[in-house]
Specification:
The longest helix has 22 residues, at about 5-30. The termini are far apart. The chain is about 75% helix and about 0% strand. It has helices at about 5-30, 35-55, 60-80, 85-95. It is mostly helical and about 100 residues long. Helix 1 packs across helix 2 (about 35-55) and helix 2 packs antiparallel against helix 3 (about 60-80). The model has no long low-confidence stretch (mean pLDDT about 80).
Length: about 100
């Protein structure tokens, strides 16, 4: 069966959900940053997710999981300016 995927709907949906996840992660870990950084991290995550959508992962599921983890790392790096490894692990576990 064939279905159509609209990239603008995928981008906006990912942008909204990534923004919400970043805000919740910031609140849980009591990290303060401005809303523009949250939005920039969410936009980077949404763009990266749209790129991942076009890569075929039927045969290599491990690569898909790795790229989604890299997407989460990129979002956290932009939104919270991660410096320490322990803080990054806490943020990544909350975000995933």
């Amino acid at each position: 069966m064939y279905g159509e995927i609209y990239i603008d709907v995928v981008f906006v949906t990912n942008l909204l959900m990534d923004y919400i996840v970043l805000r919740i992660t910031g609140r849980l870990l009591r990290l303060r940053t401005n809303r523009w950084r949250y939005l920039a991290g969410a936009a980077a995550g949404a763009f990266f997710s749209c790129l991942i959508l076009y890569l075929p992962f039927e045969k290599n599921l491990l690569m898909g999981i790795f790229l989604h983890g890299a997407c989460a790392f990129l979002m956290l790096r932009i939104a919270f300016c991660i410096r320490k490894g322990v803080c990054w692990q806490k943020q990544w576990s909350c975000c995933i």
